[in-house]
Specification:
Elements: H1 3-9, E1 22-25, E2 32-36, H2 44-58, H3 63-92, H4 96-116, E3 124-125, E4 132-140, E5 144-147, H5 155-166, E6 171-174, H6 180-197, E7 206-208, H7 213-221, E8 227-231, H8 234-246, E9 250-254, E10 259-263, H9 269-281, E11 291-297, H10 301-313, H11 333-348, E12 352-355, E13 372-375, E14 391-397, H12 400-408, E15 412-413, E16 415-419, H13 423-430, E17 439-442, E18 454-455, E19 458-459, E20 466-467, E21 476-484
Parallel strand pairs: 5-6, 5-8, 6-7, 8-9, 10-11, 10-16, 11-14, 13-14, 16-17
Antiparallel strand pairs: 1-2, 3-4, 4-21, 12-13, 15-19, 18-20
Helix pairs in contact: 1-3, 3-4, 3-6, 4-5, 9-10
The structure holds 2-aminohexanedioic acid.
Length: 499
C-alpha cells in the first residue's frame, strides 16, 4: 500500500491532511505525507475546561458501564487493526509485524481494563474501636494528560486511556509531533466506540491536541489536569516531573532506559542469541526497553560475539512494509546523526565497532543503518548514555556480583535480564541485592513486555507504572472511611477527651 492508501484506509479526508502548519513525514522515505492543523495555544484552556466538564458526568457513570465503552473500543480496534498497524508503519517506520503488534497491545489493554472495571477494589480494615468499620474506596481523579513519544505512537496512549476511562477520568492526549496522524486515527476509532455506546459518554471524554512543547506544557502546568503521564526522554521528564509536582499534580513518568542482559556461563547460547537480536535490533533499537548493554561472562563472550556477528551480518534492513524485513528505518536523519556520534565516541573510548553503517539505496530518503555491535573495554560514559538507535555495547565479567554491579551502575533503571540455567544466579538477580530495575527477566530479553504486568522503572526512568497489575491506582484517589455504628464515641490510641 502506498502512503495515500494507508491514510485513506484510516478514514482521513484530503482536507484533514492539508492546509495546516505541522508537516508529517514518513521515516520510510522521508516524504511529506500531510500538513495538519495545530491546536492554538490559546484554545488549551477551553480544551481543559471541556475535559473538566466531561469529568463531572463521567465520574458518576458506574465503573462497569464505563468498562462497556472500553470493550467497544477494543472491538473497534480489532476491526481497525490492519489499517492502524499500517499507519504505525507509515508514521513510525516499524516493520509490519511490529505495527500490528502495537495495535494488539492496545486490544489487550482494553480487555484488561474491561475486567478491571468490575474490580476497582478497596480494602476493609479491622478497626481498633468497637462498633466501628474502616474501609477504603477508590474514586476518579479528573482529567488525565497523556504526552507520548513517537516510538510507541498508539500503545502508550491506550495503556493510559483504557485505564483512565474505566477509572472515571477523561483523557487529553498530546502525541509526538512526529506521529500525530496515528493519534488522530485513534481518536476516530474512539469516536466510533462512543457512537455505539450512547448518550452517557460525555462530549470531550477523549481529546487530542496537536503541537509542540508549549501545547504539552499547557497540560503540565494546569491544576485542572491532576494526572500527567509523560513518556519520552529523561531530559523531558526532568522538566515535566517537577512542574507537575510543584502544583500538587500526579506525574506518571516513563523516561529513558539503558537495559542490560547478563549472559552467564550456563546460558543456552542459541536462545540468548535470538533474544539479543530481537531486543537489540527490533524497532531499529528505538524502544525504551531495547537491549543496549550485553554483559557476558568471559568464558562465553568470544563465542557469543561470534554468533552475534554472524546473525547481524544477515539481518534484512530495509522497507518496513516488505515481508521479511526485520530492521526498518530510524525515525529521522537526526537519529542517524546521534547514532554516528555515539559510535565515534565509543571508538575514542576504546570500543571496537562492528556494523553501524549507513545502508543506501534501499528506500531513498529514509535513514537506514545496519545495527552496531560494539566491544567495549568497560562501562564508559557513552555506554551509560541512552542513544535511541540499534547499538549494542558488549562488556565482559568474571563474577556474578561484578555483573550485577555493572548492570546497576547506570543512571537509568527500566528493564534488565539474565540468561542462566543456574537457579542460584537467577534468584540472586531477582533478589533485593540483584537488578535495580522495574523489570527483571530470566531467559527472556528486556523488551516486549506484556500488558498484564506493571510497566515502568526506577532512577532516571522516572518511577512511573502503567498498564497491568495495580497500575490503575495511579489514576484514582483513595478515600479511607471509618463508620461508627455504636452509640458511643471512643477515640483511637486510647486518648481521653471528656467534655
Ligand atoms: C517503549 O519502549 O516505550 O516492552 C514501550 C516493550 C513494549 C513497550 C515498550 N511492550 O517493548
Amino acid at each position: 500500500m502506498d502512503h495515500q492508501d494507508v491514510l485513506k484506509a484510516n478514514g482521513f479526508t484530503a482536507s484533514e491532511l492539508s492546509g495546516g502548519t505541522l508537516a508529517v513525514r514518513s521515516p520510510i522515505d522521508g516524504a511529506e505525507v500531510a500538513r495538519i492543523a495545530e491546536t492554538p495555544l490559546e484554545s488549551m484552556d477551553a480544551v481543559i475546561a471541556r475535559s473538566q466538564a466531561a469529568f463531572k458526568d463521567w465520574r458518576t457513570v458506574p465503573a462497569p458501564r464505563r468498562g462497556e465503552l472500553v470493550r467497544l473500543l477494543g472491538e473497534e480496534l480489532r476491526a481497525a487493526k490492519d489499517a492502524l498497524g499500517a499507519l504505525v508503519t507509515l508514521e513510525a517506520g516499524k516493520i509490519t509485524s511490529e505495527g500490528l503488534g502495537e495495535v494488539q497491545e492496545m486490544i489487550d489493554i482494553c480487555d484488561f481494563a474491561v475486567g478491571l472495571s468490575r474490580q476497582l477494589y478497596g480494602l476493609t480494615i479491622a478497626s481498633e474501636r468497637p462498633g466501628h468499620k474502616m474501609s477504603e474506596t477508590w474514586h476518579p481523579m479528573g482529567p488525565c494528560g497523556v504526552i507520548s513519544a513517537f516510538n510507541f505512537p498508539v500503545a502508550v496512549w491506550s495503556w493510559n486511556a483504557a485505564l483512565a476511562i474505566v477509572c472515571g477520568n477523561p483523557v487529553i492526549w498530546k502525541p509526538s509531533e512526529k506521529t500525530p496522524l496515528t493519534a488522530l486515527a485513534c481518536q476516530k476509532i474512539f469516536e466510533k466506540a462512543v457512537a455505539r455506546f450512547g448518550a452517557d459518554a460525555p462530549e470531550g471524554l477523549s481529546q487530542v491536541v496537536i503541537g509542540g512543547a508549549e501545547i504539552g506544557n499547557a497540560l503540565v502546568e494546569s491544576k485542572d489536569v491532576p494526572i500527567l503521564s509523560a513518556t519520552g526522554s529523561t531530559r523531558m521528564g526532568q522538566i515535566v516531573g517537577p512542574k507537575v509536582a510543584a502544583r500538587w499534580g500526579r506525574p506518571i513518568l516513563e523516561l529513558g532506559g539503558n537495559n542490560a542482559m547478563i549472559v552467564a556461563p550456563s546460558a543456552d547460547l542459541e536462545m540468548a542469541v535470538r533474544a539479543i537480536v530481537f531486543s537489540a535490533v527490533g524497532t531499529a533499537g528505538q524502544r525504551c526497553t531495547t537491549l543496549r548493554r550485553l554483559i557476558a561472562h568471559k568464558s562465553v563472550k568470544a563465542e557469543l560475539v561470534a554468533k552475534l556477528a554472524k546473525a547481524y551480518g544477515t539481518l534484512p534492513v530495509g522497507d518496513p512494509r516488505k515481508a521479511g524485513t526485520l530492521v526498518g528505518p530510524l525515525v529521522d536523519q537526526a537519529s542517524l546523526k546521534a547514532m554516528q556520534t555515539a559510535l565515534s565516541n565509543a571508538r575514542s573510548e576504546g570500543g571496537v565497532v562492528h556494523g553501524g553503517e549507513i545502508v543506501s539505496g534501499t528506500v531513498p530518503g529514509g535513514a537506514y543503518v545496519t545495527p552496531a555491535l560494539v566491544e567495549m573495554p568497560g562501562q564508559t560514559a557513552t555506554v551509560k548514555t541512552e542513544t535511541f538507535a540499534p547499538i549494542l555495547y558488549v562488556m565482559e565479567y568474571d563474577t556474578l556480583e561484578e555483573a550485577i554491579t555493572l548492570q546497576n551502575d547506570v543512571p537509568q533503571g527500566l528493564s534488565s535480564c539474565i540468561f542462566t540455567l543456574n537457579i542460584r544466579e537467577a534468584e540472586t538477580f531477582l533478589s533485593a541485592s540483584g537488578s535495580d530495575c522495574g523489570i527483571a527477566n530470566v531467559n527472556i530479553g528486556p523488551s516486549g513486555a506484556e500488558i498484564g504486568g506493571a510497566f515502568g522503572g526506577e532512577k532516571e526512568t522516572g518511577g512511573g507504572r502503567e498498564s497491568g497489575s495495580d497500575a490503575w491506582k495511579g489514576y484514582m484517589r483513595r478515600q479511607t472511611s471509618t463508620v461508627n455504628y455504636s452509640a458511643s464515641l471512643p477515640l483511637a490510641q486510647g486518648v481521653k477527651f471528656d467534655i
